[in-house]
Amino acid sequence: MKQAKFDVVVIGSGVGGTTSAALLCKAGYRTLVVEKLPFPGGRCATLDYHGFKLNTGLNTVTDECHGALCREVGAPFEMRVTDDQWVYRIKGRDYPQPKSGKGVLKTMIGHAASSQAEADRLMRAIKTCLAWAPPSYSMSLDEWLRQYTDNPAILGMFQNYLAAAGAIRNSELPAGEYFRMMNQIDASGRIWGYLPGGGGQLTGALVDAIKRMGGEVWTSSPAVRIAVKGEAAAGAVVRKQGEDIEIAAQAVVCNAGVARTVALAGRDLFPSGYLKDVAAVKGAPQTIIYFTHDRPLIEADSVICLTEARRVFMYSTNTNACPERAPRGKHLSGAAAYLESSLPPFDLKREVEMVLADLRDSIPGFDKYARILTIRVNRGEWGLMKTWPGHTMPVKTPIPGLYTVGDDCGPLGWWCSPAAVQSGRQAVEDIVRRYRPA
Ligand SMILES: Cc1cc2nc3c(=O)[nH]c(=O)nc-3n(C[C@H](O)[C@H](O)[C@H](O)COP(=O)(O)OP(=O)(O)OC[C@H]3O[C@@H](n4cnc5c(N)ncnc54)[C@H](O)[C@@H]3O)c2cc1C
């Protein structure tokens, strides 16, 4: 078999993989990234569809998380921010969410509450959980909220935010994880913006930086095995242009999901407790619909958040901030929706019908003027997250030298791509402590 040698091999070029590789190259490690698909980025890629730039996943980024990473590794970063971040539609009225971090929740709960006493009661409980200690992970956010209110507008507002950030339902999220996320939100960023070229601009810029710093990125090159010698990771076997290549490396960083990492290394090498945890990891599903129109259909510049719809929790016109994403004169809009339950079996036909019904109800002229480009129910490893928030795995596997990165391996309280970035940072910090570049 053909052989090659690198300091570190990274399997998968999603956010976690490209973050790890860029930081490793910067630290002087000879790094190879292998990606099974013909393009890099995973759920942070942008594909051309009849002249429209459609994201495989990620739509929005923050300066604190993604911008800081790009600056650190010398990758360009341009983020556009709309005047209003989010506009919440509560009981038929639109309320822009204030941009400033402080008091946002209080203001929005104030709009949704049916009395000042109700708002005060809930805010007091929230403050205690944030300033003192988060509630238990053994109760759901829904159970926690219902101790203080059963107001559908408030429950819907929390559901809306949770769906946007973690895809699952209030009843599926451990209450403690919600407050942990709220407490670290300044670190991952509060102000979200759009990349003019779509999500792929981020991973594309990281790939360019990796190559500029001497790393290599092979697309259409799946890892078919993780090599373990003397109980430690020793590299990977990669299939490139039909030929298997044995890559020797001091450490392996796998971004392909924890279950796939186990399969690539061999199940019998892992202790049963770890396998049990891996078996509990389940993707957070989400429906995404892209549509185009020739005339403006959505007045607001920003994202409209529906708090009382059947499925759709937000929609926006992407071309308002980034006209580059559609052919001249066309608008590109997208809507996101949660599913009735985040656990299979899914009734995909019914889920799509519910999404379309919501769009017809909330966007005047939708049937007449909108042309649907794609509808996808993203699930499993293509879900919003590869795991439900609060159910992440550690970056270090039981096999020395084998790390897993991605949004299924972020620290508790970190969700979506910031979780993937953070997992990459953690893996690299540990590699730098333990291994020297050859
Ligand atoms: C519709 C949607 C909208 C989203 N919107 C946002 C948003 O606005 N903001 C945000 O922060 N996050 C958002 N997310 C979440 C975000 O996209 C993810 O959190 C992030 O991209 C996760 O990256 P990851 O590191 O887990 O890698 P992944 O995206 O899971 O990539 C893993 C890569 O590994 C590759 N791979 C798998 N097996 C192999 C193998 N054997 N060999 C080589 N390569 C392999 C895959 O092909 C893939 O490219 C969204 C997700 C979706 C689906």
What secondary-structure arrangement, pairings included, does this model have?
Blueprint: E1 2-5, E2 8-11, H1 15-26, E3 31-34, E4 46-49, E5 52-55, E6 60-62, H2 63-73, E7 86-90, E8 93-96, H3 104-112, H4 116-131, H5 141-146, H6 152-166, H7 175-188, E9 192-194, H8 200-212, E10 216-218, E11 223-229, E12 232-240, E13 243-248, E14 251-254, H9 258-265, H10 272-279, E15 286-293, E16 303-306, E17 312-317, H11 318-321, E18 331-337, H12 348-362, H13 366-369, E19 371-378, E20 402-404, H14 416-434
Parallel strand pairs: 1-13, 2-3, 2-14, 3-10, 7-16, 14-20
Antiparallel strand pairs: 4-5, 6-9, 7-8, 11-12, 12-13, 15-18, 15-19, 16-17, 17-18
Helix pairs in contact: 1-8, 1-14, 3-4
The structure holds flavin-adenine dinucleotide (FAD).
Residues 11-17, 34-37, 42-44, 57-60, 222-223, 255-256, 260, 286, 288, 378, 381-382, 384-386, 406-407, 416-418, 420 line the site of flavin-adenine dinucleotide.
How many structural domains are formed by the residues? Answer: 3
The first-level CATH class name of the largest domain: Alpha Beta
Query: End-to-end distance, in Å?
Result: 23 Å
CATH fold annotation of the largest domain: FAD/NAD(P)-binding domain
Bound molecules: flavin-adenine dinucleotide
Judged by helices, strands and strand pairing, the structural class is alpha/beta
What integer is the average pLDDT?
94
CATH architecture of the largest domain, please? 3-Layer(bba) Sandwich
Q: Give me the count of strands.
A: 20
Specify the overall morphology.
Answer: globular
Q: What share of the residues lie within helices?
A: 25-40%
Q: Could you state the CATH homologous superfamily of the largest domain? A: FAD/NAD(P)-binding domain
The number of helical elements comes to 14
Cα-atom Rg, whole angstroms?
Answer: 22 Å
For the largest beta-sheet, the strand count, sense and barrel status come to: 7 strands, mixed
Strands in their spatial order, largest beta sheet: 8-7-16-17-18-15-19
* Low-pLDDT stretches: none
State which percent range the strand residues make up: 15-25%
